[in-house]
Amino acid sequence: MQDKTSKGGFLMVIEFRELTKEEESIFKESLDYWLTDTTLIENFKFIIGEGNWKEVFVATDEVIESLSKYSQITPYSTGLGIGEIKEGKFLLSLSGGSFISKYTNKKVVVNKEAEQLFLYKRNILGKSIHKIHESIEEKDKFLVFSKNNDYLGIGQLLVDKSLLTKLEFSEKNVIKNIIDLGWYLRKGK
Amino acid sequence: MTSYIGCVGMDTRETKDLAEKYGYLHETIERYVQIFGLKETTALLKGYEKKPKKSIRVNELKILKDELVERMLNKGFIFENVEWYNNGLIIEKAPFSLGSTTEYLSGYYFIQSIASWIPTLVLDPKPREIVVDLAAAPGGKATHIAQLMRNTGLLYCLDISRERIKSLRSNLARCGVLNSVCIRMDARKFSNYDIKVDKILLDAPCSGEGLMAIDASRRKSRNFEDIKRMSELQKELFSTGIKSLKKDGILIYSTCSTSPEENEEVIDWGLANFPIKIENITLNDFSPGLTAAFDKQYNPDLKKAKRLYPHRDNTEGFFVCKIKLLKEVS
């Protein structure tokens, strides 16, 4: 699986393949949580890229066909990486959140001030929540949106939802920043 | 002594003065004067004193232009439209950094120079095609290609640099690209895979001679040896590109250099070695390619190539040529 690089270090080679039945079941189960409309799964093709970890990619038919046709090619990445399968769970990635953003109701809308802070890796205060979907409970993960309906990243509710309206939580961190679009500037450059 | 020119009748004092005034190597100015003449060289050097305006390309995979413009106007940005490209916008006023807006992070636009749109527009990739970007990082043109392919088909994105390919992947993800296969490799070896594709973009690594306005350090750090070295690499990349095309396939060759050795000479060499022809470029009224430089005559069809100059086009110096393969080669 490893290929020696010219500098003498080791470069991980990623092997692209179809999802096993078990991986497919884990993936679908997770998407059942996220998606309101699972036709998204039927309309796209997904593959696993396995190296140090197992990443799920969504790609076009032609991309997937090329991987089997030209198996001598070892890509660095294909299509869009939408998450990782780890310890029996599918963990949605930053770009995965963007991919499903139109098909989920696991959404929290935050105000303009929080939008900017969230993009700088900050958590969200109680007073900054504009709207939270009724299905979201404490410890749930969800997509964070701006009032302009822009997907900003992935968050997690840290407190019981009934406490969000309480004054004492208005200045407290109630949403943990799991990952935000600012990553593209901080790490993706 | 450089061997590329015979400075017959050239007033060395004038070229030395220009080199000193604008901070270039004397040999560079001598070359410019031989290619363009003294008057045009002076205009070119003045052009390089002014940075081109910033510009963005709307990523239609994520948003339509009207919606983006409305949002950005509300934030205080002012744009100018581009006559020859509907999804391009020139920035007239930016109240804050273009690279830090929610819209940028959402992949709604790519910050990209005007000249950089041209190779992709001339390539004209279509949905379901198989396309290769031979030097893809950091992904400005690759994301543009994916956009024109409507995120279908297959786009091979190659780059040799470990750091740059990370940035390529990040930009492809930010822009929502689904049809890419990124390969970290020396693009000169791509033809070894024996994959035949519809279209290839070769925005070749170059001396960056056309970027003197953006990076003034290049005025003295790049010399003729760099140009000769790049020209050899460019020919190798051109060769691999041609070998990877289907019959009637299109290769777009571009550089951000104005040196004939990195442009017309590469294509002229290609015309002598492969069954190819140069196609017309109808996009806008840019300057034609050169058919002679120094003591060399190039194929007359090179006038179909296009050159961009800072003093004429308000862009960086740029070259683009559209090539059609007449018969498959291996």
Description of the molecule:
- The complex is a heterodimer of chains A (189) and B (330).
- Helix content of chain A is 25%, strand content 34%.
- By secondary structure, chain A is of the alpha+beta class.
- Chain B has 330 residues and is an alpha/beta fold.
- Chain B contains twelve helices and 15 strands.
- In chain B, the strands form three sheets. In chain B, strands 5, 6, 7, 8, 9, 10, 11, 14 and 15 form a nine-stranded mixed β-sheet that branches. Chain B has a four-stranded antiparallel β-sheet with strand order 2-3-1-4, sandwiched between helices. A two-stranded antiparallel ribbon of chain B has the order 12-13.
- In chain B, α2 (26-36) packs across α3 and α6 crosses α7 (140-148).
- The longest helix of chain B is centred in the C-terminal third of the chain and has 20 residues, at 224-243.
- Classes of the chains: A alpha+beta (189), B alpha/beta (330).
- β6 of chain A pairs antiparallel with β7 (180-184) of chain B, so a sheet runs across the interface.
Biggest β-sheet of chain B, characterized?
9 strands, mixed
**Structural classification of chain B:** alpha/beta
Measured between the Cα atoms of the first and last residue of chain A, the distance is 27 Å
Q: What is the H-and-E element order of chain A?
A: EEEHHEEHEEEHEHEEEEEH
By helix and strand content of chain A, what is the structural category? alpha+beta
Rg of chain B is: 20 Å
Mean pLDDT of chain A, as a whole number?
Answer: 91
Number of helices of chain A: 6
Rounded mean pLDDT score of chain B? 94
Helix content of chain A: 10-25%
Helix content of chain B: 25-40%
Biggest sheet: strand arrangement of chain A: 10-14-13-12-9-11
Overall spatial form of chain B = globular
Largest interface: A-B, 38 and 35 residues
Which residues of chain B form runs of ≥5 with pLDDT under 50?
A: 1-8
Beta-strand percentage of chain A? 25-35%
Q: State the total count of DSSP E strands of chain A.
A: 14
Q: Give the termini distance of chain B in whole angstroms.
A: 40 Å
